Amino acid sequence: MRIVIAEDSVLLLEGLSQILTRFGHEVVAAVTDAPSLAAAVAEHAPDAVVTDVRMPPGFRDEGLRTALALRAERPGLPVLVLSQYVEQSYAADLLQTGGGVGYLLKDRVGQVAEFIDALDRIAAGGLVIDPEVVRRLLSRRRDRSPLERLTDREREVLALMAEGLSNGAIARRLVVTEAAIVKHVGSILAKLDLPPAPDDHRRVRAVLTYLRDADDHPGT
Amino acid sequence: MNVWRAMARNPVRFVFSSWPWRSLAYLATTPLVAVLWLAVVAVLLLVGVVLAPLVVGFGVLACVPLTAVVLASVERWRLRWLDPRAAPSAHRAVPDGAGTRARVLFRLRESATWRELGYALLFSVLAAVDLMVPFAIIVGSTVAVGAPYLVANGDRIMYGSFATVDEPLEAWLTTLLGLAIALAGCYAFAALAGGRAALARALLVRAPAEELIEVRASRARLADAFEAERRRIERDLHDGAQQRLTGLIMTLGLARLDGAAPDLIDKAQAEARAALEELRDLVHGIHPSVLTDRGLAAAVDSLADRSPVPVDVDVELPERPPEPVESAAYFVVAEALANVAKHSGASLARVRIRRGDGTLLVEVQDDGGGGAEPAQGGGLQGLADRAAVHDGTLRLSSPPGGPTILRVEIPCAS
């Protein structure tokens, strides 16, 4: 893949470049601030973007904002957002833009094989949400939620869907047959009242419901 | 000690103290100051009227009230002879970089300037009294005390048609009278000067209430400075230690690809990741970036995500409150939720944040065992302190058996 990376720490920028190159990807541009990221994407039209959240000029969430703007401008452009912190509200914003996005803690890059795998899934239109976000969401009690209708097992499966795993991978993780997972997924989609649509799209919608629901405060 | 308390002391000590002399010095210089001020005003008025056809004359006239500002600072200085308490000016600081014209207009808009002008006019009239009373007492007592000398030289002292002193015995009695007048004069000087000082303090010195506001403002400034410092530390850690640890984890990942001792690499990575996680929690506690980025609702949500006790979050804010208020509210919720987790035994907490009438209302409720008391120190006292810095209030209802309701209101201008 031809990839643009954005990260304000030169140390991490080099590390990322090395890892990606190592796995046969081409880093077409490595930039250190948000405006340059937008410019580099416009110039190189890459196959995927990997970006930090906190970057110059403001050192706030410029990277995320740029990622959202890029997704709006070029629907389907695979974007992986890396951050020192994961916040559920950031994840929800990213997922609003549909499939082909990921949101991971920066140090996940150290699990090199998993990181490259996640990037591949995102490039294929999948979703990858950091397990930390998922763990916090699961531990949080929610009333008045369609998710309350799910069984514990179904919530577990949904959490793994949010991490971007395929049915086969989920089956291996939970040590059950893939057929059982297919059944759970069907039941989850039905309970969340998701309209018929191509299967991948419905999976994204299910995960989105999951995240949006957690983000939903009465009155806001 | 001030002049009034000095007068209440033993008369012998008072008469031989410095107070009568200070009072006399105060009274005696009053007419000098008044005459100088009147002369300056007269000159300015004259120049202003003469130059009025040119526009500059009006500028000169506009400066007339400002002479009272100068007079007032002289008067505050003289006030210290009689009253050692601090006498701060009621004027506010002129904004930095203001031009002459802006400075003049700034002063003219202040009520303190006009109070000082009022004082100056009153002062010029009363200065005549300050001149005459000491003059009469000093001349009267000196003549009376010197009566035997005058009489011996063949002079006679006539107190109108009421009494004539021309015999030695009468003269000695008159001396006694003169001494009595001098003694009474000491009290008269002190009383007159003390009255003048009280007038000056009332019109020229900033009221104590305003000083309190100043203290509160400086406390809030200090809190803001701490807040800025926290952000700086957070940023330094983010840019420094956190990035380096992340870099280390990446490098270890690469080393593992090269087949270097996989077990050791895994162990080293796990250690580094644990260190990074601890650092991340620490940095998040110092100042959460989600608060800066997305405001109170998202930050409180993130707190709820981390709380071991389930939390229902209900935040409704039409717009973001000012940064210091937002930050104070966030830490109030953070500490309150930490208390809930530590002490209450609750199974559910509820956070409610609203914008009230000129205030930000933060309410944290739990269904735990109640019985929380600020006197137990620690958390609740810290919460009250946080609220107080921003002039806020904390109310707590926590009957034994629960529920506990904590309500913090922080003023914030809309």
TrEMBL record, chain A:
This is Response regulator transcription factor. It comes from the Bacteria. InterPro entries: CheY-like_superfamily (IPR011006), NreC/VraR/RcsB-like_REC (IPR058245), Sig_transdc_resp-reg_C-effctor (IPR016032), Sig_transdc_resp-reg_receiver (IPR001789), Tscrpt_reg_LuxR_C (IPR000792), WalR-like (IPR039420). Pfam families: GerE (PF00196), Response_reg (PF00072). Keywords: DNA-binding, Phosphoprotein, Transcription, Transcription regulation. SMART domains: HTH_LUXR (SM00421), REC (SM00448). Residues 143-214 form the HTH luxR-type domain. Residues 2-121 form the Response regulatory domain. SUPFAM superfamilies: C-terminal effector domain of the bipartite response regulators, CheY-like. The modification 4-aspartylphosphate is found at D52. Signal peptide: none annotated.
UniProtKB/TrEMBL annotation, chain B:
Residues 229-291 form the Signal transduction histidine kinase subgroup 3 dimerisation and phosphoacceptor domain. Its EC number is 2.7.13.3. It catalyses: ATP + protein L-histidine = ADP + protein N-phospho-L-histidine. Keywords: ATP-binding, Kinase, Membrane, Nucleotide-binding, Phosphoprotein, Transferase, Transmembrane, Transmembrane helix, Two-component regulatory system. CDD domains: HATPase_UhpB-NarQ-NarX-like. One of its GO terms (molecular function) is kinase activity. The chain crosses the membrane at residues 24-48, 54-74, 119-151, 171-193. Residues 328-412 form the Histidine kinase/HSP90-like ATPase domain. InterPro entries: HATPase_C_sf, HATPase_dom, Put_sensor_dom, Sensor_HK_TwoCompSys, Sig_transdc_His_kin_sub3_dim/P. Residues 26-204 form the Putative sensor domain. Pfam families: HATPase_c (PF02518), HisKA_3 (PF07730), Sensor (PF13796). PANTHER family: NITRATE/NITRITE SENSOR PROTEIN NARX-RELATED (PTHR24421), NITRATE_NITRITE SENSOR PROTEIN NARQ (PTHR24421:SF10). This is histidine kinase. The lineage of its organism: Bacteria, Bacillati, Actinomycetota, Actinomycetes, Streptosporangiales.
